[in-house]
Design goal:
globular; Rossmann fold; 2 domains; alpha+beta; 34% strand; six-stranded antiparallel sheet; 308 residues; 35% helix; ten-stranded mixed sheet; Tumour Suppressor Smad4
């Protein structure tokens, strides 16, 4: 079988030793090509080219952003995506049930390939970019932007404390939250104003250490999108909602400060006052917009899943 292994050498869990072991294991039974990603968007281009050349599987050793880019490049092609945990959080690989250790995950991947345990999954899409597990609009995108702007080295060794500290700093000092920043309108005519929103394609939203943070428990790879809009919560309310996402997600959805929409196939997000708002996809900051179009693409990607 023809495999392309995409490697983000700067990802926090990628070491030279692990890389050698993983490459040797994949090469033992398959025709393997290896390529390193060197810039934003590179994984998507490499994956797209591999699909055009007839490569059957693109494996990715990197963080969630690299895996997401490869998924975007493979969307709509017969080439399957195989994700390996190379980052600090590895939301997607944990969501589909792979081990946290990259070498152990490679063993699980090889068994899945032996059984050809491949299934289609739907993807979210925002302004033409596909996403695997979530799109964040507003506050959480501002947090991602802040982390990317100045602390990439610290992110490799203390990602979760860094994000927690940055989230508090952005919420208290750097993000305009005294008024609605945007309005979300779904295709069924429902909508809500908010200061941030999470568009979920899978669940959980992310992890804090080993603990999942869940905002849309019904979300899944074979279901349309779920959109959770946080209207304008105060600081204490936000802390309570965060605790609910960690321990009792049903409480979060019942809060009057939250508007939750499940089964969404299309939605539009527009600025509430003409000012642009930030957004991110699968943990990668993509900039600011005054308008976003969201949609769900069923069966858009073939994914190598852990064998039963």
């Amino acid at each position: 079988m023809r495999l392309l292994l995409l490697v983000n050498a700067t990802a926090s869990s990628v070491t030279p030793r692990r890389r050698v072991v993983i490459e040797a294991a994949l090469r033992a039974d398959h025709e393997l090509e290896v390529a390193e990603t060197v810039r934003r968007g590179h994984a998507a281009r490499l994956a797209r080219a591999a699909a055009r050349s007839g490569t059957e599987v693109v494996a990715v050793l990197g963080g969630d952003g690299t895996v997401s880019e490869a998924a975007d490049g493979l969307a709509g092609t017969p080439t399957a995506l195989a994700a390996l945990p190379g980052g600090s959080t590895n939301v997607f690989t944990r969501t589909i049930g792979l081990p946290d250790d990259p070498v152990d995950a490679t063993a699980a991947l090889l068994e899945a390939l032996r059984r050809w345990s491949v299934r289609p999954m739907g993807l979210g899409r925002v302004d033409g970019r596909h996403f695997l597990f979530h799109c964040g609009i507003g506050f959480d995108a501002a947090v991602v932007a802040r982390v990317e702007a100045g602390a990439s080295a610290l992110k490799q060794v203390a990602a979760h404390p860094l994000f927690a500290w940055t989230a508090a700093d952005v919420w208290l000092r750097r993000y305009e939250r005294g008024r609605p920043r945007f309005r979300v309108e779904t295709s069924d005519g429902t909508g809500a104003d908010g200061v941030f929103a999470i568009v979920s394609n899978t669940s959980p939203y992310t992890y804090l250490g080993r603990r999942p943070i869940t905002v849309a428990p019904e979300a899944g790879p074979d279901r349309p999108l779920s959109i959770t809009v946080f209207r304008r919560p105060g600081t204490l309310t936000l802390l309570g909602l965060a605790a609910a996402a960690l321990w009792r997600p049903s409480l979060l959805r019942r809060s009057r400060h939250v508007s939750h929409h499940a089964g969404v196939t299309k939605a539009e997000v527009t600025s509430a006052d003409g000012d642009p708002f930030p957004y991110q996809v699968d943990g990668d900051y993509l900039g600011e917009r005054e308008r976003l179009e969201l949609s769900y693409a069923p069966d858009a990607l073939r994914v190598v899943m852990p064998a039963p």
